[in-house]
Amino acid sequence: MAAGSARYVRYILVAFFILAVFYFVSNSTDVTTPLRTHLPGVNKPADGGGNNGGGSSEASEPKPPASNDVKAKINYDPAQFPMAMTPNDPGWNDLAGIRDGPRMNATFVTLARNSDVWEIAKSIRQVEDRFNRRYNYDWVFLNDKPFDDNFKRVTTSLVSGKTHYGLIPEEHWSFPEWIDQDKAAKVRQDMKEAKIIYGDSISYRHMCRFESGFFFRQELMLNYEYYWRVEPSVELYCDVHYDPFRVMAENNKKYSFTISLYEYYETIPTLWDSVKKFMKNHPEHIAADNSMGFLSDDGGETYNKCHFWSNFEIGNLNWLRSKAYTDFFNSLDRDGGFFYERWGDAPVHSIAAGLMLPKDEIHFFNDIAYYHVPFTHCPTGEKLRTELKCHCDPGENFDWAGYSCTSKYFEINNLEKPEGWDTEGKD
Ligand SMILES: Nc1nc2c(ncn2[C@@H]2O[C@H](COP(=O)(O)OP(=O)(O)OP(=O)(O)O)[C@@H](O)[C@H]2O)c(=O)[nH]1
Ligand SMILES: *[C@@H]1O[C@H](CO)[C@@H](O)[C@H](O)[C@H]1NC(C)=O
Ligand SMILES: [Mg+2]
Q1: Which of 4, 124, 209, 381 lies 20 to 30 angstroms, CA to CA, from 394?
Q2: Is the pLDDT reported for residue 21 higher than 50?
């Protein structure tokens, strides 16, 4: 009995201590950074020019354009075209007909095979129903083989904007000459035996390398500044009331995500070594206020494997076409890990964004509910889900689960987790 009550006293003391620490930590972040549950500055007129791209106050030595020099061009006054961001804003429920107001220089983009036609048809239908029927953005389809008439007919019938079909040039979908074919073949055999998913696939590697370094340089993509990547068999579970491309442009966002998680280590054992080499050779490309804390738990010594899941992305193509990103991709490509390992485009894009963009140029689209097998992003908060007419099961939400990195993203950005994060969703 006495031992029992001593234990209770100890529990109470420990609990008090934890609460005190928590109070201290949450208060100190409150003071330094205003917590934001929604987009900062959406209603304030965006800077129309490209004048303050650099942002930081470094010495004015001429140097290659840094990633953040690529500033979105906005040639309208956002205040003239108010965009409802929350249910309290006028026009929120205006989901009928074609939206008036500006359109961004943007397109959807899909890499697919002819055999993916019915799976991409499903994805397109949801994107159109939930968003694009009111905006009519274009859609670019890319393939390493020519698209057949059936693929073109079905997809064109479903997309409300213009459709374009591109054939990927051979040099963007093949082994670079510096790759040792025997070494690459041996790796595929080993990975097959180790039962690593897609471990023995050549086409999967071409796909990952293409998405890492070439999709944004395809001739058709040069016509646009923003892209939204859509894969076959994905789902959009909630209405998208506002134009995410406008959110990107007006807030100078370069990269965005809905789901983040830890990468499968066997596919990227030397990726971080390659990244460190790049950082050493190109310190000029590393952003001062970067997201290293999202990628590494020891200040950059090792990679914690966190990445944004790139099968959903809304991003700025000019950033991917910048010298910073190109230098990054070329450096990694030379090291050969797309073939000697099985580097995915998700960690490649994520590490690039995390190191070369200022933190506040990466955006989490909580409002865009998304599924790609096997993970779901279903927005936290019942009120929000009702307002967005979501059809996802909140119990499936992956955001706050142990294998998600989204908590880490919230922490390094001093964001407050939405109410319900600890009661809804997956553990
Ligand atoms: N044209 C073409 N597209 C491909 C090829 N392999 C994959 N893709 C596309 O590249 C994207 C990613 O491929 P997925 O097979 O979905 O890879 P994943 O998302 O890692 O794995 P899943 O769980 O199978 O979806 C999808 O849009 C595919 O349609 C290919 O050999 N040729
Ligand atoms: C759209 O962006 C591309 C790439 O930056 C540019 O070349 C093109 O002129 C832009 N189009 C319009 C209509 O602004
Ligand atoms: Mg996929």
Answers
A1: 124
A2: no
